[in-house]
Amino acid sequence: MIEKPKEKQRQRAPSQRSLATRERILDAAEQLFSEHGFDGASIRDIASKAGVQGALVNHHGGSKEDLFFTVVARRAGVLAEHRLAALEARKTEDEADLRGILSAFIGPFLELTTHSGPQWRAYGRLIAHVSADERWRPISEVCFDPTAQVFTSELSRVLPGASPRQIGAGFVFMVSAILSLSTSTWRIGDLSGSADTDDLMQTLLDYCEAGFRAIGSPG
Amino acid sequence: MIEKPKEKQRQRAPSQRSLATRERILDAAEQLFSEHGFDGASIRDIASKAGVQGALVNHHGGSKEDLFFTVVARRAGVLAEHRLAALEARKTEDEADLRGILSAFIGPFLELTTHSGPQWRAYGRLIAHVSADERWRPISEVCFDPTAQVFTSELSRVLPGASPRQIGAGFVFMVSAILSLSTSTWRIGDLSGSADTDDLMQTLLDYCEAGFRAIGSPG
DNA sequence: GTCTATAATGAGATAGAC
DNA sequence: GTCTATCTCATTATAGAC
Lengths: 219, 219
Prior knowledge:
CATH architecture of the largest domain in chain A: Orthogonal Bundle
Number of domains of chain A: 2
Number of helices of chain A: 11
Order of helices and strands of chain A: HHHHHHHHHHH
Distance between the termini of chain A: 46 Å
Largest sheet of chain A: none
CATH class of the largest domain in chain A: Mainly Alpha
Radius of gyration of chain A: 19 Å
Structural class of chain A: mainly alpha
Number of strands of chain A: 0
CATH superfamily of the largest domain in chain A: Tetracycline Repressor, domain 2
Oligomer: homodimer
Largest interface: A-B, 43 and 42 residues
């Protein structure tokens, strides 16, 4: 199950080749989990994509659920750091108003998932799976809730007229809209050029900022 | 595959008992597909929940993919009718402004999925699966795109300043926010009472209306 | 750490009796 | 239309040689 990160004490440091293999396996798992979901991606497919034997996947990743957890957690820290750093930067420049907070949350995610290569792009879709399936709630709690709490606190500060429940609802609406850019781009149209994605980010920011303002101001 | 609704010519009308069995199977499939997704729900589990033998599921539903299609399509017509009727009602009363259009789209969905029993509640989650997985795009095109086109046309009419792409983006944001109420209610809090859900619907409407206005107005 | 081989289970689908 | 029985295949996971 998903109990812990379970950091076994190792006898000695793993070799470089071992680490490289492990990374290949995690990359393959990231892509296939993001495309087909947990149940739709098989260990065999992952092993095949990584160019290794099936047994190696279990050796490096443990059970399938452990592997899924590992893949999600691998980039969660980086994403959280980018978001919190962006938030701090806004604060020190006195730009931590509503739009500044939303930018700090949305910007790093879109920057990473659209401009940082196919693995990060897959990771965006992967988060959508984690977020949609209550089965992965323990993963969410560990990987994403801490950051979410920081941002909802900030939102409550700049929107004193909104109840915690309204802030929570608005936050869920925003997250689902963000993730829809990773999963439903085909509904809006191809996003090949950077100009298009930046355009879409502005539209998303405008949408969410106005939405939050409507929630925060009295009826 | 998902080619067609494939209406085989029957020799004679099915018996009442047969129809009842078929409904039980579809109900069970609806619940399990909505909870665990297509790959996570097995034919065996569906048969067990419906209280029939496994072979009957294939007999009534065809292949697993056919069964999924059938379940999604079963209520799609009702949902579409409610939405289009609500839209027409607004138009004849000269209330087809932005908020009226959004209400006609959101209201029937929330009414059905929160106040019309567990099957409709499951159907809401089911649509979230269909919408998130590109694999079901053919189903979306048949079941939901026609209604979506009607509403995006209306939105373009009342928001002449927004490009089709912006309307499309806003529509995707809105749909993802609506569906998040079916999948992520545990993130916002329990929705036991009707008052709570009505409250949430107002919040959602405020959020989306403001968001669309921000998209539709220059700068 | 990596491989081959295989165990153990569960999946979707069908044949054929009733 | 319904059931029993079964086919065929894919799945996760592990045992053990190297």
